[in-house]
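Discussion board: Methods & Data

I've been asked by a reviewer to show the raw model output for two of the constructs in my manuscript, not just the figures. I'm not sure how much to include, so I'm pasting the format here to get opinions. Each protein appears as its amino acid sequence followed by a line of discrete structure tokens. Is this the kind of thing reviewers expect to see in a supplement, or should I convert it first? Here is construct A:
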Amino acid sequence: MLHLRIIVPTDRSAAVQEMLSADPAVAHLIVLPGAARTPPGDVLLCDVVREGADEVLAALRMLGVDRAGGVVGDGVDVTLSAAADRAARAAPGLGADAVVWDEIAQKTGEETRLSVTYLLLITLATVIAGIGVLLDQPILIVGAMVVGPEFGPLAALSVALLRWRGSIVRRSLLALGIGFLAAMAVTVLSTWALTAAGLVDRSMLLADRPMTDFIWRPDALSWVVGFLAGVAGMLSVTSNRAGSLVGVLISVTTVPAAANVAVALGYGVFDEALGSLVQLLINLCAIVVAGVLTLLVQRLWWERVAAARPAWIRRRRPAPAPRGGPDVPGPPRSVPDRTGGG
């Protein structure tokens, strides 16, 4: 379930309460008149089952709550309530299969910011993978895969491409491009430093590496694995199952390929650098394509499931909020009807 904290202007509070009370996916509605100060208005608290959350959030936007007030959602881990059980039975589908688009957009959009933490994580992961390549140690490669934060921008890019959010597409590509370039540059420098210290040398890269040479030898399976990992990763994001994402990170050769590019460039082994670069591009493209297709299938499937809602619910759409006004800066955004009804 999702717990929603809604701030709504007093003059619209009755309409929002009516909408929430009539939706069978909503439980535990609490009204605190005049409790909000910034922005001023009433505070409404409620719990919504995930399979009905997207419809409720769309209705709140149509009522202008996002512009004149505010909506904050949190996940609910434990619920002991007959009302919540009735809401889960009334809403079509299962919560694990539900796609809450606002939640996904918020979650993945935060991953596109080119923060210092993101740059440090991808750099450290690439340096670790570079050492693992030279030592032919798969345990270091796996560790680097887990540390690498690159799946966040890849997931955001998939969501933005499907919904065509140009600014998010640009931010995602920027985070990926600058992140990998910075990480590879530092890895080249670290390789030179370790070589100068006598800890590694060029012969280690040229030697037989049966455990890690797959990194720079891409083949058809590279695309297959990357595609399957992209599907699994997007499902873990939409279903809010972070545990599954760890396995996805371990299965894709992105950070290790970038590390192999850097190490090979540092030692002037350009054929291996090229092979690693191809491996990196294959995995990145496969993950994004898989992510977009997975989201598209989920959206189409969920539209069919949502069409099974009772007809009186599908007909109940709140009237759009009035345009302009002192508390509504500009026209309301259009909200697509994903219920399948009119």
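Construct B, same format:
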Amino acid sequence: MSENQNPSVGQDVTASSTTTSTERFADPGVPEHKLRLTDTDPAANKRNERIIVLLFALSCVGAIASLVAYFAVRPDGTTEGTRLSTVLLGVTMAISLLGIGFAAIHWAKSLMSDHEHVDERHELRSSTEVREVAVQHLTDGVEDSGIGRRGVLKGAAVSALALFPLTFAVPLISSVGGDWDVAKFKHTIWKRGTRLAYDPSGRPIKASDLTVGSVAHVIPEATEEYMASHEWITEKAKAVVLLVRLNPADIRSDQSPAGETWSYDGIVAYSKICTHVGCPVALYEQQTHHLLCPCHQSTFDMADGAKVVFGPANRALPQLPIAVDDGGYLIAQDDFSEPVGPSFWERLK
């Protein structure tokens, strides 16, 4: 075999092996500690302490303002009043909490000890000697931070931390013993003969206004005086309805337990309040007749009694039985078939 000829099959070929050693480098250790301005300049140290005290004081002011806003600016039943109360509570609570947060961060960065420490790995439970050293380190850290010498700073921090929980504790406690009458959720202002009206205009709806596939957001017809009252806002929220006109042949379930028909010529009306947590359901898919709640994706079949086909809701949407009066307007036969909204302790399903 010539020198240029490849070795035959099965002939062993050994390649020279080379060993490489891992290059090691020295542990750089902890870098040299750099002193801060507050470590070398007593005036800067005192100035930062005053800033932290002011931040804690701002937190105290925010907490007190939150309590004042809660008692002085109560929701009056109007949209503007509810919005004002919510904004004031949110802003004052934010000031209180942010004051504590910014003060804590500034305290840690400017006054507390920033010396670097290295702890070697050890077993889960350290030896008694190591534990004693750790405790000593903590003690030294407290001493080094000067907490014991900063009475004003300690007082400001304690005051801010003590006052902030009141911003949510007082509203929570004050609600105890409030109105727990769930009977008001069992009935709405819908009654026999009440006309269905468009939301928000209040214009009555004729059956002839709707074509197959039409969707309308509905409220009970009411006088202008009643619609301007505070009571209307609460009652309207319970009585909102979604009206859909289906092909009558597509409706699979539309009867009361007594066998009465609750729709009119394919027009069905159901509560808009999801039976999961009360979100407004209004996303209608015409091809499947499914109604989707945007909050948690509970899905209801409008052609089958608004029964749940998907999601966390555990009962169908209450149906509003409807008919038509002599003028061709859609009217309610009665109130909803059952309580609207989420389940509660008197109604588990």
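Answer (T.O., handling editor elsewhere):
This is acceptable in a supplement if you add a one-line summary per construct. For B, something like: The beta strands are 196-198, 215-220, 241-245, 267-271, 283-285, 290-292, 299-301, 307-310, 322-324, 330-332.
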